[in-house]
Amino acid sequence: MTRNKIWVFDDSNDELQTSAEFLRLIFPDMEVVPHQPLKTLPEYVPLVLDDPTTAGVFVDQKLEGSGVAAYFGIELAQYLGALDAKLPIYILTNYSNEREQFLDGETSIEDILDKQKISDIDSQYIRTFQARFLRH
């Protein structure tokens, strides 16, 4: 079975739709599924991990902003990464200065993506990101 589904989780519907649209432009052959955060971490297992077509997960760092999730994006990444170490997981943030904080010793995520930088789909930043993602 082909792994062609990318999940995107964000508490802001506007940012969720924007991030999903950029990912569709970057990966036109992939199915990008935007989704609001779930109440608890175990709820992600049947949705994401039990789906054999899942190719990767993109998570907004500030998931708790909506009041639905009581956890941050990095906590979701750590949870999913502990259950499937081969699943590529990326953190999306508007705060690129937090990059080192998340990557310092963190093995559950592939990279931190600046939401502002992914909007320029013709940039070297995006070409490098595309190549890394498709290698997985």
- Helix and strand sequence: EHEHEHEHEH
Strand order of the largest sheet: 2-1-3-4-5
* Whole-angstrom Rg: 14 Å
Class inferred from helices and paired strands: alpha/beta
Number of beta strands: 5
What are the segments in which pLDDT stays under 50 over at least 5 consecutive residues? none
Termini gap? 15 Å
Percent range of helical residues: 25-40%
The major pleated sheet works out as: 5 strands, parallel
- Overall mean pLDDT: 86
Shape: globular
Strand-residue fraction? 15-25%
Number of helices: 5
Care to describe what's here?
The protein is α/β, with parallel strands linked by helices. Helix content is 35%, strand content 19%. The protein is built from 5 helices and 5 strands, in the order βαβαβαβαβα. The protein has a 5-stranded parallel sheet, sandwiched between helices. It is globular, with a radius of gyration of 14 Å. The protein starts with a strand and ends with a helix. The model has no long low-confidence stretch (mean pLDDT 86).
Short summary of the structure?
With 136 residues, the chain is of the alpha/beta class.
Layout of secondary structure:
Layout: E1 5-9, H1 13-26, E2 31-35, H2 44-49, E3 54-60, H3 73-83, E4 89-93, H4 99-103, E5 111-114, H5 124-135
Parallel strand pairs: 1-2, 1-3, 3-4, 4-5
Key terms:
single chain; 136 residues; alpha/beta; five-stranded parallel sheet; globular
